[in-house]
Amino acid sequence: MVYIGEAHPDDAWQLPSNIKDNVVLASPVDFKQREKVAEMCVVRLSIKLPAVVDRFDDSTEIAYSGWPDRLYVIDRDGRIAYKSRPGPFGFKPADVEAALQSMIGAAAH
Q1: Three-class SS of residue 69?
Q2: Is the dihedral of CA 87, 70, 3, 101 positive or negative?
Q3: For a tag on the chain, would you pick the N or C end, based on fewer CB atoms within 10 A?
Q4: pLDDT tens track of the chain, all 109 residues?
Q5: Buried/exposed 31-51: b ≥16 CB within 10 Å, e otherwise
Q6: Distance, CA of 94 to CA of 85 (rounded, Å)
């Protein structure tokens, strides 16, 4: 998982659930603050995946169109084997599974 810029900082549009759950956060002003927000999100959401934080220049988000959410499968050669539609509504776990199965099958041959 790559944590990118905060989607709903306190100086922008808020989801009602963010207000209800008291997760209204300021936009980080530097990388250290972004790391702290990312860590809080991983802990509070009980995310079990390994997580890294995008650089403060948003290079990963820009390169992969990661906002608002997106699922990718990267093959052994570092190429994109699958890219989901924007999430969470564009997520199709069966498509991710099919891409992974295809990669496993190709590796077995």
Answers
A1: coil
A2: positive
A3: C
A4: 899 987 777 777 777 877 787 777 888 899 999 999 999 889 988 999 899 999 999 999 999 888 778 899 999 899 999 999 988 888 888 999 999 999 888 777 6
A5: eeebeebbeebbeeeeeeeee
A6: 13
Contact 73, 102 (CB under 8 A): no
Residue 90, both tokens: 């564009």
Alpha carbons within 13 angstroms on the beta-carbon side of residue 74 total 6
Cα–Cα distance measured from residue 30 to residue 53, given in angstroms and rounded to the nearest whole number: 12
Distance (Å, rounded) from C-alpha 42 to C-alpha 49? 9
Q: Residue with structure tokens 């659930």?
A: 17
- DSSP tag of 85: P
Does the predicted TM-score (pTM) go above 0.85?
A: no
Task: Give the containing element (helix H, strand E) for 100.
Answer: helix 93-108
